[in-house]
Amino acid sequence: MEEIVESALSLIYLFLTLVSVCLLLVRGVKGRPVRWLVVLVVSEGTLSCLVHSSFLKVALATVLCGLVHYIGREEVMLPALNKAVLITGCDSGLGHNLAKCLDSAGMRVFAGVLDECGPGALELKRAASSKLTVLQLDVTNRRQITQAYEFIRSQTGETGLWGVVNNAGVLGYVGDGEILPIKLYKKYFDVNFIGSVEVTQVFLPMIRQSKGRIISISSMAGFSAYGASKAALTVYSGTMRQELSRWGVKVIIIQPGAFKTNIFGRREQWIGVQEEILSGISQDVMETYGVEYIRSMQQRLVEMSSTSSPNTGPFLESLKHALLSSRPNPFYYPGAAAWALPLVYRHFPTSLSDKLFSRIFMNGDAKPAQH
């Protein structure tokens, strides 16, 4: 009889442990924080090895399962109706889709665009509801940012502005850090970092008043100039999260996977930058890399664009959760296996993570002339 009870308890223990691990994996796939839950699972496993009583093991597994379920439970979502949000970079891609999505959810959307008369802006005006307003907003233009602030403040009144989504960004061309023109570095930082900082500073009084959200679209992409600008945005947002918490403002970072957008630019833009590189680098650098390697970077952009996912659903769901959850996550990783990149970067040996990232982001089969 004792053997039967012992076997039954062992099966219950294994079942509860398996349930806990499955809940943990589901949470990780959704891009939600799992660090402390991993610590709980490991701690429970360690204690179980030290405890010989099957009753105590089952008790530990029950407590663990309950904690994982409680910590990972679905929280209350705030009402979207009439909450106002500013989104930059709505001409196309993720920002364009997000503006439509939040408009459909009942939010009052101010969609900032680089060209108010462009096809993306005209599409928003045609397809969206009367609650969506398209604004001319170049994030590198201080005057336009100030004008957008004055307009939104006059339109929102006492309800204020609930959220700012710093989505505007440029990539356009990727290449080895040594050969990219300095003016390309400056462009990336002006749009991807400085522009987001300036928009955040201007609109912070309204966000502080509403105890709302500041959301920045960052990246884990390992490209020299683009990656550096996004890394700056991530560090800045992390610091602001700490500083603004005293006023109840939530600062959130989104690091999406590869989605099909217009951030890669157009082929004619790639050719223009490529010719600028070829005509501007020194003879020593040219001999080191070679013309063939430099020209191969254009194909790299084509391959990246072709393998990107056209389904922006995971991104849109993450943004809605970040804006409307009563307990938003500090980080979101929407997209196929996007959560794996920061996991590898933070916890794997540097030599291993470098090899993995180089396979993902470096220039395919092409090699420099001298290597």
UniProtKB/TrEMBL annotation:
Lineage top rank: taxon: Eukaryota
An annotated GO BP: steroid metabolic process
Claim: DNA damage is one of the keywords in the record: no
One Pfam assignment: adh_short
TM region positions: 12-29
GO molecular function: oxidoreductase activity
Record key words, sorted: Membrane, Transmembrane, Transmembrane helix
Homology family: Belongs to the short-chain dehydrogenases/reductases (SDR) family.
Protein name: Estradiol 17-beta-dehydrogenase 2
Species per Swiss-Prot/TrEMBL record: Triplophysa tibetana
